[in-house]
Design goal:
By secondary structure, the protein is of the alpha/beta class. The chain has helices at about 5-20, 70-80, 90-105, 115-130, 160, 195-205, 230-240, 260-265, 290, 310-325, 325-350, 375, 380-395, 415-430; strands at about 40, 45-50, 55, 110-115, 135-140, 185-190, 205-210, 240-245, 270, 285, 355-360, 360-365, 395-400, 405-410. The structure holds pyridoxal-5'-phosphate (PLP).
């Protein structure tokens, strides 16, 4: 099998006449003649337009927690949409979903819904600024919080562009973002305890929020070092700064209560999307009652589609399944087998690697022993990682083409899928052996 079949190539040419790059999100473009186009997906599998089947580890960048086209979720959505999809009024089902989120997520007393992770983090930042009366936010290099201008800074740049780690330069990730917005952003390497202490001493009383992913879910799932999230919690409390934990990737995935439950950490606000609706468009942000209660009292938040019925119904069905069945435990078992199997393969072939993340969402950097932030990760052997990904795809196993994107598992992956994946990797790793 080649990386991309003839029908994908043709569809790319056609798509490029009407869609910039031939896609509807820049991240979906893998290159000229290298971008697969999808036909359908079911469970853990995805078929491209050439009819080739892949074991999918992209899971649409994380949302698919149960499996593609999961019958119980789809049935709930179909039943609900027959009674209308949008009313610009509030219904009981969305109240129930809000109650479920509050029950499942330890730090959440109240929530508001949105349609995407981008919206959820944008709203959370607005609320944090309104609550504190301050404008500046601190974010970490390599973390991605969506496409809005407030945080599309230092998501990925070469180390030279980031400057010295004692005084990092916020690097905008797109033309079109006003440079003047850099005035409101302070950036730091993730897991930089000393840098964080220094910034809090100098600017703590000017910060509205510290926003972070609990792990770097957009840079190889680099975990927080022990004590790092706790330090953020401690200092933000001391300086009355809102601690926003962006759980768009970890929420309802690494534990039912996300990273809050996993690490026992209580942020002031948290953001959710992805696994919350098994692929349907639904998101939320929420947290302490005192902070959330200012919404509607001089603080704007809303949106025509924020309680769209397909999204709400999918969230209801998904959260219900997560609450009542040991779904994440089952994903963890399979994910652990896959992580351990890959570790054995790299060790047997004397390939240095750093494995990071959680069984439901993990990654590995090659050619390095440990990675604690994007600057370290950037020194890893990304070419070999990519070479492996392309060979895996040619053999029917599909992690994402971008090495920053973790491997995601869902409830529909089977032991046989894990075995097949390991046997493919055992085979292809020989080709990058140094
Ligand atoms: C941690 C995090 N926050 C926010 C977002 C933005 O979410 P969306 O793509 O739904 O706008 C993403 C997307 O990958 C994410 O990983």
């Amino acid at each position: 099998m080649s990386l991309v079949g003839p029908k994908s190539k043709l569809l790319q040419q056609r798509a490029q006449k009407v869609l910039p790059l031939g896609v509807n999100s820049n991240f979906r473009y893998w290159g000229e003649g290298l971008t697969p186009y999808v036909d359908k997906a079911k469970g853990a599998y995805l078929w491209d337009v050439d009819g080739r089947r892949f074991i999918d580890y992209r899971m649409a960048f994380g949302p698919i927690i149960l499996g593609h086209a999961y019958d119980e979720v789809d049935a709930q959505v179909i039943a609900e949409v027959k009674n209308g999809v949008l009313f610009a009024m509030t219904g009981e089902l969305e109240v129930r979903v809000a109650e479920m989120i509050v029950e499942m997520c330890p730090a959440v007393d109240m929530v508001r819904f949105a349609c995407s992770g981008t919206e959820a983090t944008m709203h959370a930042i607005r609320v944090a600024r309104a609550f504190t009366g301050r404008d500046t936010i601190l974010k970490f290099e390599g973390n991605y919080h969506g496409f809005h201008d407030h945080t599309l800074w230092s998501t990925y740049a070469p180390e030279e562009a980031y400057g010295n780690r004692r005084s990092p330069i916020p690097v905008k990730a797109s033309s079109g973002i006003p440079q003047s917005m850099s005035e409101f952003v302070i950036t730091l390497p993730f897991n930089d305890f000393e840098g964080f202490e220094r910034v809090m001493r100098s600017y703590g009383d000017q910060l509205a929020a510290v926003i972070t992913e609990p792990c770097q879910g957009n840079c190889g799932a680099i975990e927080p070092q022990p004590g790092f999230l706790e330090l953020i919690r401690k200092r933000t409390e001391e300086y009355d700064v809102v601690f926003i934990l962006d759980e768009v990737k970890t929420g309802f995935r690494i534990a039912n209560g996300g990273a809050q439950e996993y690490y026992g950490i209580r942020p002031d606000l948290a953001t959710y999307a992805k696994a919350m609706g098994n692929g349907y468009p639904i998101a939320a942000f929420g947290g302490r009652r005192e902070i959330m209660s200012i919404i509607g009292h001089g603080v704007s938040q809303g949106g025509t589609y924020t309680n769209n019925k397909p999204g709400v119904a999918a969230a209801y069905a998904t959260l219900n399944l997560l609450k009542t069945k040991p779904i994440l435990e089952s994903i963890q078992k399979r994910g652990r087998r896959l992580m351990d199997g890959l570790k054995d393969i790299f060790e047997d072939n004397n390939i240095p690697f750093a494995m990071s993340g959680y069984p439901a969402m993990f990654s590995f950097a090659l050619g390095v022993q440990a990675v604690t932030c994007q600057r370290d990760w950037d020194h890893s052997d990304k070419d070999s990682y990519l070479k492996l990904v392309e060979m895996a795809i040619e053999r029917g196993v599909m992690p994402d083409h971008d090495p920053r994107e973790p491997w995601f598992l869902c409830y529909s992956h089977t032991d046989a899928d894990v075995d097949e994946t390991l046997s493919v990797y055992a085979d292809i790793v020989k080709n990058v052996k140094r």
